[in-house]
C-alpha cells in the first residue's frame, strides 16, 4: 500500500513528465467537479490578473516556457510580456525589483522555481518586504506574493528538497499559506493576491497533478478563503492530527487506517502557518485530549514545535498524553530512494504515533 | 530619535526615514538591497506609464554587492527609468576602495550600461548630471552615475554620443565623508587626519559655492554669515522640537506589523501577559475587557495585558473576527 502511494507521488514529479494541462475554463464548461491543484492555481492567477491590472507575474520561465511547472501556462498569451515577466536566474535581483514595485502600488506575484532558490532572495522577503510597513509606520505596505513549490520533492537531493514553512513562519510581517487541495489552492492564492501584506505561498510540487473535487462555490471567480483559518478536514473524537500541504493527504489516509482500529482521528489542515490558527487547534485538542503534529520540515524549531508549545501553554490541563511530533528527519535530504523515504514522514509513521498517543501502541519490535 | 512625531513615528530608526507622498522611499538598512528595490520602483513607474524616474543611491561599499548587477541587468534588459547613483566617498565603512574593489571606476562597472563620473563636491555638476540623467532615463532606461570631475557638462556631451542607441546608464559621484561611518567610528584609524583636512580645504562643496557667490557679488560676506546663522538656528530649533516629542505610545508596539489589524495576533516577550488586540470586532473587545476585570492586568491603548485564563475565548473571538472581515 505504502509503496504504491510513493509511486503515485513520484509519478507526478518532474517538469518533463507533466500531463498536458487542461485550462481551467475547460473544467468550468464541462461542468467537471474535479480539478488539479495546478489548474486551481492557474485559474486563480488568471482571474486575479483579469480583475486587477496592477497584478503581474514575474519569475524564471513564467512566460515563454509557460512555467517550469506550468502554473503560469497561457498567461503570457493572455496578458502580454508587461504582465508576465520572464527574468534572468537572479532571485535576489528580481525579488527586490518585485518588492520595489509593490512599494509603488503594484501587486506582484513572484514565482520562485522552487522555494529552495528563495534563499538567494530571503533578505528581500524578510528585510525588504516583511518589515517595511512597520518601519515606515504604515506609509509603505507591500502587497506582494512569493509563490512556488516548497518541501521535499522526489529524487532531487538535499539542496532541492526541504520545507521552508518554519523559516518564513517565524517572521512577523509575513503571512505564510500552505494549500493542500484544489479548493485551498484557489481560495488561498486569491486571498494572498488580494491581501495588502506580503504573503509567502508554499505549494507542493508533488500535489500539482493531484485532482480534488471542487465545489461550485470554489469555482466562482469571487471565491476567496480567509487567511489565518485552519480547516477541519475530518472530524474525530479520539485524537487531533495537525498537518499542512501534502501531509494532509497522508494524515487523512492515516485516519482511515486508525478508524479500522477504532480510533477516531480529527484531521486539521492548517492552511495558514502564519497567522497560525491556534484557536482551532486548541479547541480540537480540548475535545480529543490528544495531539500528533505532522510536517515534512526539520523537527527542530518546526511547525510542530510551535503547535506543541501553543497547546502546552493553553490547553495543558486537557492533554491525556504527551504530544508527539512527526517530522522530516534531522538530516539534509538524502538522494537514495530508500534513505529519502526514511527521511520524510510516511503514513505508517503517523499511524504509529497516533496509536502511541492513544496508548494502543504495539511493542517496538513488532513495528520495526 | 525614536519619537512619536518622527516621520517613522519611532518605528523605523536612523536608517529608515520615509516620505512616500513626496516620492521618498527611504533609507534601507541592508547595503546593496536598495538597488533592486529602486529598480522595482522604476519598474512600477514604467508599468504605470508615469513618465517619472527613480534615483537609487548606493555607496562605493555597496557597489561590490552582487545583487546590484542583477538589478542593473534587468533594468537594462527592460529599459527601466532607473538612475543608479554611486556616492563614492572612497571608504566602505573603514575599508578603502582600493582594498575592496579591483576596479574602483564604479561608473564603468555597468559594462553594457553607460556610466558618468561627476564631481560630487560640486553642487552644480551634480544638478546638471541629475537633470541629464533623468531625461536620458525617461527616454532610454537606466543610468549608472558616479560623480567626479569638476565640469560635468563635457562628460555629458561625450556620454550622449555614447548612449545614442538608447541604453541605460550609471552615475558615479566622487565625494567624501569627513566624519566616521557611524557614531562608533572615530574615522581616524583607516585614513590620515591630513587627508581629511586636505579635502576640507580644497574640495568642500559649501566652501566652493561660497567662493563662487562672493566672486560674482551675488551676496556679501555678512549676508552669507546671516544665512549660516539662520540655518543653525533652524536646525537647533528642529532638534529641540524633536526632543520635546514624546516616545511612542506603548500600544504602538503591535501596530503596523500588518496593514489590517485584524486576522493576525502578535505576542510580547511574555505572551501570557502581553499580546496585541488585533480585532475590530466589538465582541472581542468585550471579552478582553471581562478578562481584564477578572485578573490583575491593565489595558494600554491597543495592546492588551491580561491573564492566561481566557485564551480560548480570545482565540474564538479572533476566528469570528477573521470570518467577519473576510
TrEMBL record, chain A:
The keyword Transport does not apply. It catalyses: N(6)-[(R)-lipoyl]-L-lysyl-[protein] + pyruvate + H(+) = N(6)-[(R)-S(8)-acetyldihydrolipoyl]-L-lysyl-[protein] + CO2. SMART domains: Transket_pyr. Its cofactor is thiamine diphosphate. It comes from the Eukaryota. The keyword Oxidoreductase applies. Keywords: Oxidoreductase, Pyruvate, Thiamine pyrophosphate. Its EC number is 1.2.4.1. Signal peptide: none annotated. Residues 35-210 form the Transketolase-like pyrimidine-binding domain. The pyruvate dehydrogenase complex catalyzes the overall conversion of pyruvate to acetyl-CoA and CO2. This is Pyruvate dehydrogenase E1 component subunit beta. It comes from Tanacetum coccineum.
Automatic annotation (TrEMBL), chain B:
Residues 4-144, 164-249 form the Dehydrogenase E1 component domain. Keywords: Oxidoreductase, Thiamine pyrophosphate. SUPFAM superfamilies: Thiamin diphosphate-binding fold (THDP-binding). Its cofactor is thiamine diphosphate. The keyword Ion transport does not apply. Residues 182-201 are annotated as: Disordered. It holds the Pfam family E1_dh. InterPro entries: DH_E1, PDH_E1_Alpha_Subunit, THDP-binding. Residues 191-201 have a biased composition (Basic and acidic residues). This is Pyruvate dehydrogenase E1 component subunit alpha, mitochondrial-like protein. It comes from Tanacetum coccineum.
Amino acid at each position: 500500500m505504502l509503496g504504491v502511494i510513493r509511486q503515485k507521488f513520484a509519478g507526478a514529479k518532474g517538469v518533463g513528465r507533466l500531463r498536458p494541462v487542461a485550462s481551467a475554463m475547460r473544467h468550468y464548461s464541462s461542468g467537471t467537479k474535479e480539478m488539479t491543484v495546478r489548474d486551481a492555481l492557474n485559474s486563480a492567477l488568471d482571474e486575479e490578473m483579469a480583475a486587477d491590472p496592477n497584478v503581474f507575474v514575474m519569475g524564471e520561465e513564467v512566460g515563454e516556457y509557460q512555467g517550469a511547472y506550468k502554473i503560469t501556462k497561457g498567461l503570457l498569451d493572455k496578458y502580454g510580456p508587461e504582465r508576465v515577466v520572464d527574468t534572468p536566474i537572479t532571485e535576489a535581483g528580481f525579488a527586490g525589483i518585485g518588492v520595489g514595485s509593490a512599494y509603488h502600488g503594484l501587486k506582484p506575484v513572484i514565482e520562485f522555481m522552487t522555494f529552495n532558490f528563495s534563499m538567494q532572495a530571503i533578505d528581500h522577503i524578510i528585510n525588504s518586504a516583511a518589515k517595511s510597513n512597520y518601519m515606515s509606520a504604515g506609509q509603505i505596505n507591500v502587497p506582494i506574493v512569493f509563490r512556488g513549490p516548497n518541501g521535499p520533492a522526489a529524487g532531487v537531493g538535499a539542496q532541492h528538497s526541504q520545507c521552508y514553512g518554519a523559516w518564513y513562519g517565524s517572521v512577523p510581517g509575513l503571512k505564510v499559506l500552505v494549500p493542500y487541495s484544489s479548493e485551498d489552492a484557489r481560495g488561498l492564492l486569491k486571498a494572498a493576491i488580494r491581501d495588502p501584506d506580503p504573503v509567502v505561498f508554499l505549494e507542493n510540487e508533488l500535489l500539482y497533478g493531484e485532482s480534488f473535487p471542487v465545489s461550485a462555490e470554489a469555482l466562482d471567480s469571487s471565491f476567496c478563503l480567509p487567511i489565518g483559518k485552519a480547516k477541519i478536514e475530518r472530524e474525530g473524537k479520539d485524537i487531533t492530527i495537525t498537518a499542512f500541504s501534502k501531509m494532509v493527504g497522508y494524515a487523512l489516509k492515516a485516519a482511515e487506517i486508525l478508524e479500522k482500529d477504532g480510533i477516531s482521528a480529527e484531521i486539521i489542515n492548517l492552511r495558514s502557518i502564519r497567522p497560525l490558527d491556534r484557536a482551532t487547534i486548541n479547541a480540537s485538542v480540548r475535545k480529543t485530549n490528544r495531539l500528533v503534529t505532522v510536517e515534512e520540515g526539520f523537527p527542530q524549531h518546526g511547525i510542530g514545535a510551535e503547535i506543541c508549545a501553543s497547546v502546552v501553554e493553553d490547553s495543558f490541563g486537557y492533554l491525556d498524553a504527551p504530544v508527539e511530533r512527526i517530522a522530516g528527519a534531522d538530516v539534509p535530504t538524502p538522494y537514495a530512494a530508500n534513505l529519502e523515504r526514511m527521511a520524510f514522514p510516511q503514513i505508517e509513521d503517523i499511524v504509529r504515533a497516533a496509536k502511541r498517543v492513544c496508548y494502543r501502541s504495539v511493542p517496538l519490535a513488532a513495528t520495526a | 530619535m525614536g519619537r512619536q512625531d518622527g516621520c517613522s513615528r519611532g518605528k523605523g530608526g536612523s536608517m529608515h526615514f520615509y516620505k512616500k507622498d513626496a516620492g521618498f522611499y527611504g533609507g534601507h538598512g541592508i547595503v546593496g538591497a536598495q538597488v533592486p528595490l529602486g529598480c522595482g520602483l522604476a519598474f512600477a513607474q514604467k508599468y504605470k506609464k508615469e513618465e517619472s524616474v527613480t534615483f537609487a543611491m548606493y555607496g562605493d561599499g555597496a557597489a561590490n554587492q552582487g545583487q546590484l548587477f542583477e538589478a542593473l541587468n534587468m533594468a537594462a534588459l527592460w529599459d527601466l527609468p532607473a538612475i543608479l547613483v554611486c556616492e563614492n566617498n572612497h571608504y566602505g565603512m573603514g575599508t578603502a576602495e582600493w582594498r575592496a574593489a579591483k576596479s574602483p571606476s564604479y561608473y564603468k562597472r555597468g559594462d553594457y550600461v553607460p556610466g558618468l563620473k561627476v564631481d560630487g563636491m560640486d553642487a552644480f555638476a551634480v544638478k546638471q548630471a541629475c537633470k541629464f540623467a533623468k531625461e536620458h532615463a525617461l527616454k532610454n532606461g537606466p543610468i549608472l552615475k558616479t560623480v567626479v570631475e569638476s565640469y560635468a557638462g563635457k562628460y555629458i556631451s561625450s556620454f550622449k554620443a555614447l548612449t545614442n542607441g538608447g541604453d541605460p546608464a550609471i552615475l558615479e559621484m566622487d565625494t567624501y565623508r569627513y566624519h566616521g561611518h557611524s557614531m562608533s567610528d572615530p574615522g581616524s584609524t583607516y585614513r590620515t587626519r591630513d587627508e581629511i583636512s586636505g579635502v576640507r580645504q580644497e574640495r568642500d562643496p559649501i566652501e566652493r559655492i561660497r567662493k563662487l557667490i562672493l566672486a560674482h557679488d551675488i551676496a556679501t560676506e555678512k549676508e552669507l554669515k546671516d544665512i549660516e546663522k539662520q540655518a543653525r538656528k533652524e536646525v537647533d530649533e528642529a532638534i529641540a522640537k524633536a526632543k520635546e516629542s514624546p516616545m511612542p505610545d506603548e500600544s504602538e508596539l503591535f501596530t503596523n506589523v500588518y496593514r489590517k489589524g485584524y486576522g493576525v495576533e502578535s505576542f510580547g516577550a511574555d505572551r501570557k501577559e502581553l499580546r496585541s488586540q488585533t480585532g475590530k470586532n466589538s465582541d472581542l473587545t468585550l471579552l478582553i475587557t471581562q478578562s481584564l476585570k477578572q485578573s490583575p492586568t491593565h489595558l494600554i491603548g491597543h495592546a492588551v495585558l491580561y491573564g492566561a485564563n481566557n485564551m480560548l475565548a480570545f482565540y474564538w473571538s479572533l476566528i469570528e473576527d477573521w470570518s467577519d472581515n473576510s
